[in-house]
Design a protein that fits this description.
This protein has 345 residues and is mainly β. 1% of the residues lie in helices and 42% in strands. Strands 4-10-7-8-9-6-5 form a seven-stranded antiparallel beta sheet, with no helix packed on it. A five-stranded antiparallel beta sheet has the order 3-16-12-13-14, with no helix packed on it.
Length: 345
Amino acid sequence: MCARPLFFSLTLSTLLITASITTAVETTTEPVGAMLMKVNSPASPGTSRLSLISATFVNPVSYQGAIATLNATTLTVAGTPWAANQFNGANGKYYIEITSGAGAGAMSDITATATNSLTLTDNLTTFGGATTAFRIRKHVTIGQIFGATNTAGLLAGQSPSEADEIIVLDAAGQSFATYFYGDFDGTEFDGWYDASYTAAANAVITPEQGIIIRRKQTGAQLQFVFSGSVKPGQTLVPVSQGVNYVGMANAAGRTLATSGLFTGSTTTGVKSGQGLGDADEIALIGSDGAFNVYWYGDFDGTEFDGWYDSSYNPSNSLTINPGTGIFIRRKAPSSSFNWTVPSAY
C-alpha cells in the first residue's frame, strides 16, 4: 500500500434528538447525530492535500414493512402503501435495506416503483424473502453532504483542475468518479459537476462509500457539519478483489477486533496470514497523517493470533472512528465478500 501522506480529522457528537417514523407496520424512533468534518489545507500554493471521510449518517426512513414476495429483482408488499414512481425518477434516488434475518444489512437501489412493488438493481433472494422486514430510505447526495450551493466551503473553480475535488472509488470497476463545485461567475451554471461537466448535486453517496477530498486551497482548516439519522442494525459492505475504499458504516465506531473484518473465513471476511505479504491489508490514517497498514495474523491458533500493524505491533484495540475512510486491499485469489459491520446500537 502506498505510503503517500493523507490527512483526515473528524469528531462525532450524538445529539439528544430523535425522529419519529410511522409506517404501516410499527412506530419507531431513530437517534439523530452530527459530525464535524475537518478538511486540512495544503501548506503551499500549487499543491494539494487529501482527506479521507465518510458520511456515516443516513436519511430518515421513508417506509418500512415486510416483504410479501421477492422474485429476482422484483419485491412486492401487501396492499398499496405508496404511489407509483414515489421512490424513483423525479423524487430522487432511493434504496431498500433488509432489516431482519441473516441477510440484514443488504441493500439495493430502487429503479422503478408500482403501487405495491419495487424493481431493484440486485437480486436479494439470498438475503431475504416472504415476511422479511425491510426499510426504504432516500440516498444521501453530494449536494446534501456539502450543500447545494457549496456551503461546506470547498474551493470552487471552472474545472476539476482549479477546484477542490471530491473523489469516490467504484471498487467493482476499480475506477474513480470525480466531482467539483463549478463557479461560473455567479451565473445560473454554478453548481456541482462531475469531471464530464454533468450536473452532479444529486450524485449518490451510498451508506458504505468512503469520500476522498483533494484540497487545493491554502489557509485555515476547513470545517463543516453533516447530520442525519443514525442507522440501526448491521450493514453489509461489499468488498471486491483489489483495492476498496469504504466508510465506517457505524456511528459509534469499532476497534479492529470488534469491527467484523476478520471472521475466520475468507468467504465472509479478510484473509489472515503469518505476515503482511500473504494477508489482506487494511489502511487507516494515523494522527501524523500517514497511511498505517494493518493485517490479521494467524499463527496456528496460538495466543499470538490477532491484528498487527506493519511493524508487528499488536493492534486489536485500535479504533476505527465513525466517519472514517478505510482502504481494504483484497488480494487474489480471494474473491469478493460482504463485510458485516456491527450495529451502532
